[in-house]
């Protein structure tokens, strides 16, 4: 079966593997570096997009030098830079922070009435149940409004992320159709990842999007899966070695940086 395309059967059968195999595992979170490191300006990672895609076809993150927001849908990596315009990028690009999985929905829910960010998150929480597991989330449908932001490519010496986000370009899209995907991270993992919801958006025409800060949706399909299996690749770089990963007010800083 070498070199054959990944099928659902491959995904399921590989869940029985010994963890050494590169075969995809459904609903396992693969993460490079940590949110606390990104916050402390560790903007260069060692993982290429080609390597990242070996671990998932669904996810989000950013690029080396903090050069835009990343969304991964159906195995395609897209980069949102200023103006929120989406572009496909070469697999040789690297990422300092990304989270991917092979998303296999466990529950599907048809949303037929408008939801705010708060009511949508409450709905996902109730569908997922266990607050102490990660969850992968995908909503496909109509939005009354989506607010996104992107980040700019940074030059060395790298500024702290709280300085970067003060100048972040934002985009408001109204009456738009698209896909919002991402993860819910349990509170005790704050700093490793972003506690709570971290969602990125891609329009149906695949031309615009970014890191979601606010939204109101109208109707569509919600899919969720719980995640209890994590693999975190920590960088062996000097930047990471020198980073302060346990600063005071970590949660507040992440809230400001991620707009959650
Ligand atoms: Zn983001």
UniProtKB/TrEMBL annotation:
Transmembrane segments: none annotated. Gene3D superfamilies: Hypothetical protein, similar to alpha- acetolactate decarboxylase, domain 2 (3.30.1330.80). CDD domains: acetolactate_decarboxylase (cd17299). It catalyses: (2S)-2-acetolactate + H(+) = (R)-acetoin + CO2. Belongs to the alpha-acetolactate decarboxylase family. GO terms for biological process: acetoin biosynthetic process. Its EC number is 4.1.1.5. GO terms for molecular function: acetolactate decarboxylase activity. Keywords: Acetoin biosynthesis, Decarboxylase, Lyase. Pathway: Polyol metabolism; (R,R)-butane-2,3-diol biosynthesis; (R,R)-butane-2,3-diol from pyruvate: step 2/3. Pfam families: AAL_decarboxy (PF03306). The gene is budA. InterPro entries: Acetolactate_a_deCO2ase. This is Alpha-acetolactate decarboxylase. Signal peptide: none annotated.
């Amino acid at each position: 079966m070498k070199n054959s395309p990944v099928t659902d059967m491959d995904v399921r059968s590989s869940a029985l593997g010994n963890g050494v195999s590169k075969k995809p595992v459904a609903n396992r979170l693969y993460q490079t570096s940590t949110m606390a490191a990104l916050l402390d300006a560790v903007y260069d990672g060692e993982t290429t997009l080609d390597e990242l895609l070996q671990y998932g076809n669904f996810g989000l993150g950013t690029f080396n030098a903090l050069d835009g927001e990343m969304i991964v849908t159906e195995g395609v990596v897209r980069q949102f830079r200023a103006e929120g315009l989406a572009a496909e990028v070469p697999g040789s690009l690297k990422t300092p922070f990304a989270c991917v999985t092979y998303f296999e929905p466990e529950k599907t829910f048809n949303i037929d009435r408008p939801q705010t960010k708060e009511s949508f998150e409450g709905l996902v929480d109730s569908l997922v149940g266990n607050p102490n597991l990660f969850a992968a989330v995908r909503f496909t449908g109509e939005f009354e409004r989506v607010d996104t932001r992107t980040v700019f490519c940074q030059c060395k010496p790298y500024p702290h992320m709280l300085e970067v986000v003060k100048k972040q370009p934002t985009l408001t899209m109204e009456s738009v159709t698209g896909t919002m995907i991402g993860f819910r991270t349990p509170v005790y993992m704050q700093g490793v990842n972003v506690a709570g919801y971290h969602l990125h958006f891609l329009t149906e025409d695949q031309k615009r999007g970014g890191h979601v800060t606010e939204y109101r949706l109208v109707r569509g399909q919600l899919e969720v899966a719980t995640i209890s299996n994590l693999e975190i690749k920590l960088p062996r770089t000097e930047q990471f070695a020198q980073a302060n990963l346990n600063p005071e007010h970590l949660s507040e800083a992440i809230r400001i940086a991620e707009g959650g």
